[in-house]
Amino acid sequence: MTVEAGARQEERVAGRVWTVRLDPYGRPSAGTVRLSCSRPACADQRFPDGAAAGRKAAVGHVNAHLARIRAGGGPRGEAWCACRAADCAWHTPDPDAGRRGGARPVAGTVRCGGPVVLTVYADRTGRLWRIAEMCARCAAAIPDCRALDTAPPPARQGQATSGAAREPEPTDNTARAVDSVAALFSDHRPSPAGGTSSSPATGPTPVPRARAATPAAASGRGKQWGKIAQRTVPHDLQPDVLRVELIELGDAFRAYQQRAEPDPALLAELHERKARAFALWADVSGDGSLRDEARRAEKAAETTREMQNNRDGRIIGNTGNGDEPVVQRLLTQKQAAHARSVLEYVEAHAPRPEAEVRLAVLMLTLRAARAGTGNVTGQDLTGWLQGDAEHVLDQLVAADWLRLPGTVADALASQPESPTAITVPALLPERPRPFAFGKTTRSKLSGWAQKAVGDRKLRKKKLGATTRLLAVYTAAHTSPDGRLGRPEDDGMPLNGPATFCTLLPDRVAEHVELLVAADWLAEADTTGGRLRGRLAERVLPLGGLL
Questions:
Q1: What SS3 state is found at 94?
Q2: How many CA within 13 A on the CB side of residue 504?
Q3: The dihedral of CA 253, 254, 255, 256: what is its sign?
Q4: Taking 80 as the threshold, does the pLDDT of residue 131 lie above it?
Q5: Contact call for residues 77 and 96 (beta carbons, < 8 A)
Q6: Which residue, 399, 391, 340, 345, is CA-closest to 368?
Q7: What is the pLDDT of residue 223?
Q8: Are 116 and 150 spatial neighbours (Cβ–Cβ below 8 Å)?
Q9: Residue 473, helix vs strand vs coil
Q10: DSSP 118
Q11: Tell me, what's the pLDDT at 211?
Q12: Reading across the β-sheet that carries 33-37, which strands appear in turn?
């Protein structure tokens, strides 16, 4: 009987999986969605109000399942990795590895490992949610997957036959006496490598007891082990300096999570250290997933530094005392690059060369850049084009660059509560897509251009379409300090703004003077065939970083 009981405890059961889906139902124009769950006991639900109501219900359904899992004891330590049971198709980049008809990858290929964790995966499109019991290594390899709880290790056969049950091995997520299942962040518990850690509220916290020594690990007794990025750092990892660096990095990331205020410079440095350490770890162990983690860390460091530069751009050489004011810019560096790509597209694809037409094409392109359709009001059109609005729209419609549901007069009379739905055929999804940005960036770019074209002082001076095009062009081509052109260049060639604004190069100077008079440019010079100058301080937030 004792042997049978021990054998039963060594058996592995399949990891549980709950899949919640949101799919269209009925006619696409109706907007009805259907919520379905992989559990047979969960009946399908239909939501005629659209995807927003369906997503809200799906999140509630997932939370209800999580609450029942918690009431049932949480993830099971004896469960088999559900991701491996699916041939690791949830995270393996090779499509052949996920074929159901093929052979299951061997353990050395899949490299499952670590304790069983309860995970939640949410598809970024808001159409799929998955709860699963899987190993910690697979959970770390799946993008957008969050580990909510960790199972205690399964009881071993020796424990079943002994007279007294041994206390289960502590883990980082030992806080099971919680009222509901929630994400347990690593900064809530100290690293196993440290002695004690303290928090402002609770003071020193004892470290969980170390793993019981085994014959295989006898030689590693006395060495520290730690965790970083949901991975356990082996106590016998060589070289020793790598093991120490990984442990210290894990502690540093946990300490950063406890900071009251973010520090992008510090976070970028940590990501850079992590990229170097994981690259070396991959070389030592031959684990390709570690190299993927190193590349993700490099990208995270680059993104963090870029965010810091975009949000904390300073006016160089303005005060000379190191206390330069911070400029809150409307566009990040990448968004500014997208803005310049739109200007290039407008210059190449405007159906007519007149400045009024080019200005209308710019603003309408930004409204319809993603799907080929957008909304405008009569106030938008008259604000952009003033007295030329009707004539310009007639030209665009006649060239079939723009399609309106009614007449031009109807579009000019439309109000904010009932805008006109425009269509730009060249930007429809079935055509080659000229832009690579998403809907959030499109909205940002449209708002940026609207602020430039509709600037209060430009309107007060009643400046024409050519001058306002030049204002947009200069704002999109500035250095971080507001100077026109790249920092290493002496301004910009006059041919660039002249071609975009449909001017001869020797006519640019008169429009530059108008921008100086309107306090758009603080200074300007057009000698030597180059445009030099600097944006006025009031319009620095509109500057696009070169």
A1: coil
A2: 2
A3: positive
A4: yes
A5: no
A6: 345
A7: 55
A8: yes
A9: helix
A10: E
A11: 38
A12: 45-47, 33-37, 17-24, 128-135, 116-122, 145-150
Does the pLDDT value for residue 457 go beyond 60?
yes
Tokens 């410079």 locate to: 265
Task: Give yes or no for residue 101 having a pLDDT over 80.
Answer: no
Per-residue confidence (pLDDT) for residue 207, from 0 to 100 = 33
Q: What secondary structure letter does DSSP report for 87?
A: T
Please give the Cα distance from 345 to 57 (Å, whole number): 42
Q: How far is CA 478 from CA 44, 362, 492, in A?
A: 55, 19, 10
Nearest to 228 by CA among 204, 193, 180, 184: 193
* 546: its two tokens: 């070169």
Residues 6+ apart with CB under 8 A from 494: 505, 508, 526, 529, 530, 531
- Residue type for position 393: L
**Are the C-beta atoms of 127 and 58 separated by less than 8 Å?**
no
**What is the pLDDT of the chain when averaged over all its residues?**
79
d(CA 468, CA 458): 7
Q: Cα-flanking dihedrals φ and ψ of residue 247, to 5°?
A: -65, -45
β-strand partners of 422: 374
Task: Name beta bridge partners: 493.
Answer: 530
Predicted confidence (pLDDT) per residue in 157-199, tens digit:
444 444 443 444 444 443 333 333 333 333 343 444 444 333 3
The three-state DSSP-derived secondary structure of 10-46 is HCCEECCEEEEEEEECCCHHHCCEEEEECCCCCCCEE
* Max CA separation in the chain (angstroms): 99
pLDDT tens for 481-538 read 889 988 788 889 999 999 999 999 999 999 999 999 999 999 999 998 899 999 999 9
**Rg (Cα) of the chain, in Å, rounded?**
30
Q: Let me know: does 126 contact 23? Beta carbons within 8 Å.
A: no
Query: What CA–CA distance (Å, rounded) separates 384 from 363?
Result: 8
Residue 47, strand partner residues: 33
Q: What is the DSSP letter of 181?
A: -
> Which residues have a Cβ under 8 Å from the Cβ of 482 and sit 6 or more positions away?
315, 522, 534, 535, 537, 540, 543
- Residue 128 neighbours by CB distance under 10 Å: 15
Closest CA to 140 of 106, 169, 111: 111
CA end-to-end distance (rounded Å), the chain? 76
**Strand, coil or helix: what is 389?**
helix
Q: Give the helix/strand (H/E) hosting 80.
A: strand 79-80
